[in-house]
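Input (ABC transporter permease):
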Amino acid sequence: MSVEAREARQPWILLSPALTAILLLLVVPLIFILVYSFWLRTATGADIAGFHLDNWQEALTDRFYRDILLNTLKISAITTIVCALMGYPAAYFIARARGNKAILLLLLMLPFWISYIIRTMSWINILGVSGALNTFLLWTGVIGEPVQMLYNQTTVILGLVHFLLPFMVLNVFVSLDGIDTNLEDAANSLGATRWESFLQVTLPLSLPGLAAGGLLCFVLAAGTYITPLVLGGPTDAMFANLVFEAIITQLNWPLGSALSLMLLAVLGVLVMIYNRYLGMAQLMKGLG
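Output:
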C-alpha cells in the first residue's frame, strides 16, 4: 500500500469508533423506527408488518395533531425568548466578574446535579394550593383563599425556563468570555458610552453564543414531555406527550413511531432554516 493511500485512510481509522457509535446508537434505531412507522396496529393489539400509510395519514391529516404541534412550537419559542432575556444578563455578569467567576460557574452548574424530574416536581410544592407561595400569601393577608396557579401553559413555560436557562447562560457565557475587553475600552476611548460600546461591540460579537443557546433551548423544549405532563393541564399537552401516550399508554408503537419521526422532521427543517439565516456561519460572516 502506498504512503498516500495509507495517509488517506488514517482519518477514517481514527474516526471509526465515533462513526460506529453514531451508526449503532443513532442511524440503526432511526431505521427501525422508520420501518415500524409503516406497520399497522390492529384492534386486537397485534402489529401487522408491511408498508401501510395509515399511521402517516392520521398523523399528517388529523387536525388534533397539527394543533398540538403548533402549540408545541409556540411554547418552545416563548421559552427560548424568555431564556434569552433572562440568561444574557446573567451570562454577562459572570463573564465580567472578577475573582469569583469559578464560584459563579459552579453555582450555575448545581441544577444539573439534581434530577430534572425532581426539579420539575418542586414547582408543585411552590405553586400548589397548599404550596409555599399560597401559604405565604395567605399568611400576609394578600389573598383570602388559595389560588390555583398550577396546570396551565404559564407553569409549563416556567418549568421549561427553569430547566433550560442554564444551557442558555453557558452558551452566552462562552461567547462573552472569548471577547477581548480591550475592544470595549477602545470604543470608550473613541467617545462611545458604555451602553453604546455594548450595543456596537459586545452584543454583535456575542450573537453566535446567543444563537447557539437559542437553538439548543428551542429543540430541547420542543422534545420534552415531563414538564407538560407534571405542570400542564389537559389542554397543555405538547407533541412529545402524544408520542409518550401512543407508545407507553396505548402500546401503539407504529403510530408513536410515525409521530416521533414527524416531530423529528419538523425540528430538522426548522434547524436548517435557523442555520441558514441565523447560524453561526452567517453571524460570523456578517461580523467580518
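The chain is about 75% helix and 0% strand.
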